[in-house]
Amino acid sequence: MRHALFLHRSSLAALLLALCACAQADTSAPLRVQLPAAATASAAGRLLLFAEPAAQALAKAKDGNVLEVNASPFGGADDASMAAMDIARLAPGQSLAVDTDTLAWPTSFSKLADGEYYVQAVLDVAGDDNYGGRGADDILSAPVKVTLGKAATPTTLVLDQRLPAAGDPWQLPPRFSEAIRKAAPAAKAATREIDFISPALSAFWGRPIHMHGWVVLPPGYDGAAPARYPVLYFTHGFGGNQRGLIGTAVNAYTGMQSGELPPMIWVLLDESSATGTHEFADSVNNGPWGQALTEELIPHLESTYRMDGKASGRFLNGHSSGGWATLWLQVRYPKLFGGTWSTSPDSSVFDDFCGIDLYAANANVYRKPDGSPYPIMRDKGKVQASFEQFARMEETTGPIGGQLASFEWVFSPRGTDGRPTPMFDRGTGKVDPQVVAYWGAHYDIGRILRTQWPQLEPDLDGKLHLYVGTADTFYLDGAAYKLKAVLDGLGAKSDFRFVPGRTHFDLYVEGSDRQALMKDIAWQMYAIARPGAKRPARKPTGKLAAHAE
């Protein structure tokens, strides 16, 4: 699913200091954390403590060596528990008791079954674990086996490990296939980094704001030659960033090399920031990201590279939060782009927000009118997590960067405290109808289409393409059906494809080809930019399915 406060780490640390009070020592607490006496400076941030039953952790460990204890909303019953507290200052050699009950997920540690657990502490210095997970800014302890419950013995977790810097993004990890890793050097040679300072965003924030990404040039590209190329603007989903786009860059270049993808320039856009994904939407909280892209970055790119430079050669594609972003950009700037192929987009209508009607009287995102919980994730027909579980875990991890908070940074009005006004109460799940009204007036794509179609139709009709699985992991197919109904009711031309049984993560796959849908989409784009172009014959590989990086 799906940040945009581009804060420096020092700013985030200052925010944490403002939000928290210094932890008080409690000699009776069974778990404590300590910064080594040899540390060169004090530390501050969000302390996250993870606990997992020892037998469970060992069963998942390689060679019986527990290297990490972590939690995820995808983990379900087989995941670790988590507790959190803010630390204003931890001095070298200082030890602090950990509060494992006030802020915990899915339950306070005092309610865990008696027994042996592996525990690990993580000090999130930059406040960004809610978005990107553990990173080089974090200070960790080693996982330690302890006894919790009635027989608990005091244990001190020493924060003596710093994760290494990420290093060269082109040095692909083993999770990538050997073929992709071998192809990376050639793709790197054809790829140019985007590091563009936006005047509009810099004016909004009062400091230089950079836009990041990659430009992948097709094989044979010659900047001095007269040939021009259509452009595919791609952006990632929630949790992605510039580094994570490297795999997409390699796939794009190798696909063009083999002829499986048409010769195009790929612009891979990073839509991550400190608070989540900014969706390239102009926002009172995040700033004018849409303006920055369309009025600043795209003209800069078109003056630098041999791009078509017209709507019939500018196309959009994104998955999940990237799918919402590209759908939004096409609707918001219909004259600029020649079509969007948005896959599994975040909810485009707010009367079906992951299956919840936010406009309903007395709406509540935690509970249905009959009191049963709203699900937010499923797999093979089985509910993986409820909306409340997801929200409470996000709240435990931190106030910035989570998926639900990210929506508020994009869609919500600004509150009196300078932060986005919450769409719902984190304690009760009650929806704020005034905030939802603001969401609807400014960002409900279905509502915008209904109210503005006479003005939009000449430049937008036939440009909206949407793909989603009927078993989407986050129930996003519901909003897609409603958006299609809006367009059908307007008599609009559109291309909506609901792929039977596919989830959020297997939409692009066909047989063994994990990029099959992307190839189909790229050739559809190319046929618009280059009428009469013929796609090479391809071997059938099975039924359509897949996942975009």
UniProtKB/TrEMBL annotation:
InterPro entries: AB_hydrolase_fold (IPR029058), Esterase-like (IPR000801), Mycobacterial_A85_antigen (IPR050583)
Keywords of the record: Signal
Endpoints of the signal sequence: 1-25
Pfam families: Esterase
Origin: domain of life: Bacteria
Protein name: Enterochelin esterase
